[in-house]
Amino acid sequence: MRRTPTATAPENPPSATEIKRSDWATLSRLWPYLWDYKVRVVLALAFMIGAKLANVGVPLLLKTLVDRLAPSATSAQALMVVPLGLLLAYGLLRLSTSLFTELRELVFAKATEGAARRISLQVFAHLHALSLRFHLERQTGGMTRDIERGTRAVHSLISYSLYSIIPTLIEVVLVLTLLATKFDVAFAWITLVALVVYVTFTVTVTHWRTRFRREMNELDSKAHTRAIDSLLNFETVKYFNNEAFETGRYDESLDRLRSVAVKAQRSLSFLNAGQQTIIATGLIVMLWRATEGVVEGRMTVGDLVMVNAFMIQLYIPLNFLGVIYREIKQSLTDLDKMFNLMEREREVADAPDAKPLLLKGPPSVRFDHVNFAYDADRPILHDLSFEIPAGQTVAVVGPSGSGKSTLARLLYRFYDIPPGQGRIAVNGHDVRGLTQDSLRRSIGIVPQDTVLFNDTVAYNIAYGRPEATREEVEAAARSARIHDFIVNVPKGYDTVVGERGLKLSGGEKQRVAIARTLLKDPPILVFDEATSALDSANERAIQAELAAVAQGKTVLIIAHRLSTIVHANEILVMEAGRIIERGTHVHLLAANGRYAQMWRLQQSEQVTAPAL
Description:
alpha/beta; ABC transporter transmembrane region fold; six-stranded mixed beta sheet; 10 strands
């Protein structure tokens, strides 16, 4: 029974599924990573409280020191001995503040770095687990910048919250308590009102300024994306003399970024001026009140010094509250973006009861009434059925866009066939019921478009089986007819191939890809135009090697050159997602259909091809 083609459920583009969560929700996502280091968290909090107690003790000791030095002191000996002890105690308190602060940072460093490492590793692993659709739609420059900022946000949040906000709150509570108990409650109220006005002004203006920062980040990501995309396509830019065009596009992005940055700086200047005005006003009112107390005899000069020291100690960290609040808000936004990446659902995921594929020999592969579309309005495969018997070779030919390469993508489970739209089975097991890892370990592919890592030739060949020995790597290179080329370059197998392998020619990259697959030595092989970039002599030599390697394996060949697949056990001719002919090379020629027409055309092209 024929089935109508439907699309797989599309994964949304990277920017389309971002979940807007509250700041507290974002923090709650971060907390479990820190709580793994609960002992260090508790110790860090203890050291932080110790540092603040010592810090609050400094003005108290300073008050005592000033009062003891008053002219009313009874003896010269007291003037010499008592202040000396107080000075030593003052120095020890100052030292204790710094010592506790450094101990807090030392103890908590492992928790901070550990949390950042775990989050970054989970994001990296999750990105690799996402489907091909996501990676085809992503913007690499912007995404990498989001990950970079998200990782940095972990450090910023911990630094600003644990090292700035919480210690300041502790100190505010301690100071307000001391002012209310040692003097009249008016001192506490003046301080509290000044703090409330300061914090309200800071939060309000910073919230207003956040849109400039958010816009700056968006423009920065866009500029970074444009720059990365242009540099990755360096050769294309050169081919079409578009250096000035690319520079202009980048400059346009930078100019928009500059405009928003200027607005952000203006708003920052307004924020800083307002903060200083509130601080100065609060300090004047407090000192005026304290001066009145000294004049009236209710307070000593030491009390005046202590009040002034308390205010300075409070306002120094609060002076940076605007920066801290802005950075915390921005860090929460950046961290939220990274958590959104982690929460993006995988389009292709292992079923809860997925089983590993266990093979003792070459398996059979069957496409059974497969319908598939990348997008609902553009069907690719229509009721496609064929089988590759265990240990045999099936070739697929047809014009571009007929759906040939889609077969390999579906077999690899880069996309899943929707329920009710057919199935792909390996040894009778539906691939959707198998673990992706075990399935892909059983398949080796030489893709049509070979992309290499920016590493050595040896690394790229060994990527097929990372634990392989150097001798096995060289044996695979010999089979792929690239060993002689490698040993004749100055650095041999240690030659770096450049970004995406661009230092190698198309044929050299393809032979590295063939060597990599031969080294993997899986029971299922897929050759997707495996020799399309090779000259005729190398193609014939490698075809012989591939034919030898394919013995005893299940092979799917996707080809354009018909001369490379005449040995196949069965040849499928595809057109517009359907199989229109099938049979052996001899059978198809005798049928005098589409395959025979393609064969005659290619033979005549080889004879009459003009020299370029």
